[in-house]
Design brief:
The protein is α/β, with parallel strands linked by helices. About 40% of the residues lie in helices and about 15% in strands. Among the domains are: about 100 residues, OB fold (Dihydrolipoamide Acetyltransferase, E2P), CATH 2.40.50; about 190 residues, Rossmann fold (3-Layer(aba) Sandwich), CATH 3.40.50.300; about 160 residues, 3-Layer(aba) Sandwich (Rossmann fold), CATH 3.40.50. The chain has 25 helices and 22 strands. About 0% of the residues have low confidence. Bound molecules: adenosine-5'-diphosphate and magnesium ion. The site of magnesium ion has 4 residues, from helix 10.
């Protein structure tokens, strides 16, 4: 249960005085429905009224506070003109300008002959200074704030109403116990939470808005610690008591390895050793396997699956698309054969008697490794005893699906493989519930893919180049993005492109897209793989995982519309064999700054981890992972591009806390429960044994 001390903050916004249903709706739109959402809605700007020039020296464009005498009122002669009030100090005169003014009101607040303090933006108009609709007109300078926070607004929401509501919410913030480690707070010179919060809402200069500022850092750290603590608690729950030690005798693995046409890299061996050690431990494995495109994750997965089979259990390998399932089956089959185990596929395409037979064999334990799509989740799919589930290309699956798979059997170990390297900071927030293994480096002999960025107006040159390359026996991908609202239009564009290129290149161009019948798609892929067609036009279905080592050229049209991670994935489709490969990033029309930066990054780097860091900087974490897909919520106070160091600290801190005080029973533990509730981590608190 939420501690009573937090009740006021979890009240709804309408409980604030002056907030009715209409205002509540608008405020909820920008901040959220409760007071706690308001206090975490930090200012995005600041109005500084401390500039106090004389009229003659006032700089146009600046916000100024002036002390003036009121000289004369000039009501408009025609309605469309503004009402003017002339004022002066001992240096000069200027006009205050009011459109659609209420004369009586203006005479009340600015009576002729009075002295007033006015504040607003100075404008110049026909060689004269003026101020339109001053923000403040007061008798005493103390009656206006010198500094005002600016908050993000939505249409129909007045700045002052929102600011007032936020002040109201801040007044309700209770005194809470310090949840951070005292020594740490001292070392970082962090202010207490309450002070950091109030100060963050009271900026005086633009510099005070910077996320690097001490107050904002403190708040960011609070949010990050809550996040990490919650993830660790969830992980502890998932790992639970149900794990078991899975070890094999190494025989199947040895047979598969001897069938490999290559030696495993040190990176692969290192990752495999970590995975096997984790499987052998009695707690349940929840591990993320990261490796750059082409680093050879699939074979590592197979060897881990074989470990489970050696232990008398079954394995599952799940991939996001039918295409990938077929590819995995085809590429793993020879090794499975060498090891003498049985592989089967299960996708939406397996139907009727065939499917029945597979399910029966699976339940009887006659299938050792099942490779499939989402179809693996269906209720009638039962394993005899699932020991390890491997999920390929994680970002296509949500956290919830992951959970669902885990509920399938007693307690399979879970290995998730990411298609895209994720910066460590992101991995910690989105997958903080998992351990991480990385495959460093790529198989030897891979040459970097020469990457060029080019304007679409040079498409003719590109096609001529392609023609030469294909006639020399090379194979190429040509990617058309999904861009229109309608998939039908897109597919039409892609097919048109395929026809056009087929003609221009004097051969047949294959075509694959997501809407195609599976059999047609397989046929197109097979024709490309065998070299029957040397050009494959594709929508982004080939983005993840497709492996045709003979392909050496990748053309991406409308490259400006792709994210960095996607481009890196696409480029990763070539450079897999021994041939020299190239990637042409073709853009159409003018480039935005961000698009320019993305394409330049692609041209200059082929390090997936570096590209991922850049992606995070350019787009922010929500976009990088896909908010819905990752199950990760955006942070409100922390900015991972800036506070990455704090996240790492929070991760270690959370671990330490739970090692010392597993059920959060100490004084600090109590305070940390408040922190968890404050940031809405109720679910995690429920996993604590005592409440
Ligand atoms: P990814 O990590 O992107 O999923 P894959 O597992 O698809 O990469 O492997 C990419 C290619 O590299 C495949 O053709 C695979 O057979 C090959 N490969 C994997 N490991 C090695 C290795 N140690 N040496 C040479 N080639 C390898
Ligand atoms: Mg892969």
């Amino acid at each position: 249960m939420r501690p009573a001390i937090l009740f006021p903050l979890f009240a709804e916004i309408r409980t604030l005085s002056g907030v009715g249903p209409k205002l509540e709706k608008l405020i909820a739109k920008v901040a959220g429905p409760r007071l706690v959402d308001l206090i975490f809605d930090l200012p995005v700007g600041v109005v500084d009224r401390s500039y106090r020039p004389r009229i003659a020296e006032a700089a146009p464009g600046r916000i100024a506070t002036l002390e003036v005498g009121v000289l004369e009122h000039f009501p408009p002669r025609v309605k469309s003109q503004p009402y003017k009030v002339r004022v002066s100090d001992d240096s000069a005169m200027m006009d205050l300008v009011f459109f659609r003014a209420d004369a009586k009101y203006l005479n009340d607040v600015l009576p002729t002959g009075s002295r007033r303090f006015i504040s607003g933006r100075i404008e110049s108009f026909k060689d004269r200074l003026q101020m339109a609709h001053p923000d403040y007109v007061v008798q005493d300078a103390g009656q206006m704030p010198l500094h005002e926070p600016i908050y993000a607004l939505t249409e129909g929401l007045a700045a002052r109403s929102l600011a007032k509501a936020i002040r109201g919410a801040l007044d309700k913030v209770p005194d809470m116990p310090e949840w951070q480690d005292e020594a740490f707070v001292r070392r970082e010179a962090f202010a207490p939470f309450h002070e950091a919060l109030l100060s963050s809402h009271a900026p005086r200069h633009d510099a005070d808005l910077a996320p690097e500022g001490a107050y904002r850092r403190r708040l960011a750290y609070d949010e990050l610690l809550a996040n990490q603590l919650a993830l660790l608690l969830i992980r502890r729950q998932l790992r639970g008591p149900a794990g078991r030690a899975v070890t094999g005798d190494g025989q199947l693995r040895a047979r598969a390895i001897s069938a490999l046409p290559f030696a495993l890299t040190d990176g692969q061996l290192g990752a495999l050793a970590e995975i096997e050690a984790d499987m052998a431990s009695p707690t349940r494995m929840l591990r993320l396997l990261q490796g750059d495109v082409g680093s050879g994750k699939t074979i590592v997965a197979l060897l881990a699956l074989l470990t489970a089979v050696e232990a008398g259990l079954q394995g599952a390998l799940m991939a996001p698309t039918e295409l990938l399932v077929r590819q995995h089956c085809a590429s793993l089959e020879p090794y499975a054969k060498a090891a003498g185990i049985r592989l089967a596929a299960l996708t939406g395409r397996e139907k009727g008697v065939g499917r029945e037979a597979t399910l029966k064999a699976l339940a009887a334990g006659e299938i050792d490794i099942l490779i499939g799509t989402h179809a693996l989740f269906e209720d009638d799919v039962t394993f005899r005893d699932l020991g390890l589930a491997v999920i390929d290309e994680q970002h296509r699956f949500g956290v919830h699906q992951r959970m669902r798979l885990q509920s399938k059997s007693k307690a399979p170990d879970v290995l998730v493989m990411t298609a895209t390297p994720i910066p460590r900071t992101l991995a910690l927030t989105a997958f903080g519930d998992m351990d991480v293994s990385r495959i460093m480096g790529r198989p030897p002999g891979r040459k970097p893919v020469a990457t060029r960025v080019m304007n679409a107006n040079r498409l003719d040159d590109l096609i001529a180049h392609l023609k030469r390359a294909l006639s020399e026996g090379q194979r190429a991908y040509w990617v058309c993005p999904l861009v229109e609202e309608s998939e039908v239009i897109d597919l039409a564009a892609a097919s048109e492109r395929a026809v056009m290129l087929g003609k221009a290149l004097g051969g047949k161009a294959g075509l694959v897209h997501g809407q195609m019948k599976a059999a047609e798609r397989d046929a197109a892929m097979a024709a490309f793989k065998s070299g029957e067609t040397s050009l494959l036009v594709a929508t982004t279905v080939i983005e993840v995982g497709v492996d045709v080592p003979e392909a050496t050229i990748m053309v991406v049209e409308h490259a400006e519309r792709f994210g960095l991670a996607q481009l890196h994935q696409l480029r990763g489709r070539v450079g897999r064999g021994s041939g020299k490969s190239s990637c042409m990033l073709v853009y159409h029309g003018g480039l935005t700054l961000a698009a320019k930066a993305r394409l330049a990054t692609m041209r200059d780097s082929d390090d997936g981890f570096l590209i991922a860091e850049m992606d995070l900087k350019l787009r922010g974490p929500g976009e990088v992972l896909g908010k819905r897909q990752s199950g990760m919520e955006e942070f409100r106070l922390a900015d991972l591009a800036v506070h990455g160091d704090l996240l790492l600290t929070a991760h270690d801190d959370a671990k330490l806390v739970l090692a010392r005080d597993p059920e959060l029973k100490s004084d600090r533990g109590d305070a940390l429960r408040v922190l968890l509730y404050l940031f809405g981590r109720d679910e995690a608190v429920r996993y604590l044994r005592t409440g």
